[in-house]
Amino acid sequence: MGAANPWPTHAYVPGKTARHPEDAFDEVRQTARAGLTPKQLGECRAFRLGLRYLGAGYYWEAHELFEPVWMVLPDPSPERQFVRALIQIANGFLKLEMDRPKAAARLEGISRGLLSGIDQGTVMGVDTREIYDLIDVMRDQVGLAL
Question: What share of the chain is helix, strand, coil (3-state, %, to 5)?
């Protein structure tokens, strides 16, 4: 993965596919820097590409990009809670790919709980309704897998 092509060669699923090189996402992760405002972090490459990865089924990779954003957001803050929910959603979908629906069901509940504490609307440039829709998709997939 390089600046010209931000897409991974494959989705990493532990136990099923090869892990990416340790530094594969460092360049993008570094765009989430301490001192940026939540609005700026919502516009940084790590967050925006993380959202694209999540939507495209690159769940482990999305988590890798969301994590540095989460780490530098003010604690406590609705934005930090929101990014934590995104991390849990990515993890839940990854658990489904790993054939672990019970773990995914637990993460679906955690994700929904994290979002319930945030005012509906837009957080970091993302409509929370779209994220609730993702959680609903996870819930439906969990129901099919159990």
Answer: 60, 5, 35
Please write the tens of the pLDDT for every residue from 49-107.
999 999 999 999 999 999 999 999 999 999 999 999 999 999 999 999 999 999 999 99
pTM: 0.96
Domain presence at residue 103: yes
How many secondary structure helices (H) and strands (E) does the chain include? 7, 2
Residue 16 falls inside a structural domain: no
pLDDT digits (tens, 9 = 90+) for 20-44: 999 999 999 999 999 999 999 999 9
**What token pair was written down for 14?**
């532990």
- 2: in domain: no
Q: Cα separations (Å) of 65 from 75, 85, 99, 104, 117?
A: 18, 14, 23, 20, 23
DSSP letter, residue 37: -
Total domains, the chain: 1
The CATH number that applies at residue 59 is 1.10.3450.10
Could you tell me the residue range of the domain that residue 69 belongs to?
26-145
Give how far Cα 138 sits from Cα of 9, 42, 53, 92, Å. Answer: 24, 24, 16, 7
